[in-house]
Amino acid sequence: MTNTLPFSTEFTHSHIYYTAETREAAERFRQKIIEKFSDRTQISRLVDRPIGPHPVPMFEVDFHSETARELAPFLEKEREGLSILIHPVSEDEVKDHVERSVWLGTKLELNIAFLEEFMAGKVESARTDLHTKK
């Protein structure tokens, strides 16, 4: 991965996916991110269930795009085989997650219907308690 992402927005989300079998790797990876980037990111707790459009457990790392230069290569190098979705944050959640995104590792099938319903105001965000300390 180059030191830049193929999109330009002020804010970026990354979702790091895991399973019951890879949860320990996810915990180690999350701790590495905290140690190196906690001053420039917002890192969620591990969410041990599918949430919103995400089909398997995950945790999220949110960051300003200027942090991407250092963080994106770190995510690729240190991910321990975990799949990662990196996407910009804009008014169009579907395009952000599908067309403007970058995958590291295996691409997962997202629940795009959830994003479409969210954008239409039919469902609420699943992110409400994502960043609570745990």
For this entry, give a set of tags.
134 residues; 5-stranded antiparallel sheet; Alpha-Beta Plaits; alpha+beta
What this model shows, in words?
By secondary structure, this protein is of the alpha+beta class. The chain has a single domain (11-119), classed as DOPA-like domains (Alpha-Beta Plaits, 2-Layer Sandwich). It is built from four helices and five strands. It has helices at residues 23-37, 68-78, 93-98, 112-119; strands spanning 11-17, 41-43, 58-64, 84-88, 102-104. Strands 2-3-1-4-5 form a five-stranded antiparallel beta sheet. The model has no long low-confidence stretch (mean pLDDT 87).
Give the topology.
Elements: E1 11-17, H1 23-37, E2 41-43, E3 58-64, H2 68-78, E4 84-88, H3 93-98, E5 102-104, H4 112-119
Antiparallel strand pairs: 1-3, 1-4, 2-3, 4-5
Strand order of the largest sheet: 2-3-1-4-5
Number of strands: 5
- Cα radius of gyration in angstroms: 14 Å
C-alpha termini separation: 31 Å
Tell me the β content.
Answer: 15-25%
Percent of residues in helical segments?
A: 25-40%
The CATH architecture comes to: 2-Layer Sandwich
Mean pLDDT value: 87
Q: What spatial form do the alpha-carbon principal axes imply? A: globular
Brief rundown of the structure:
It is built from 4 helices and 5 strands; from the N terminus they run E-H-E-E-H-E-H-E-H. The protein has about 130 residues and is an alpha+beta fold.
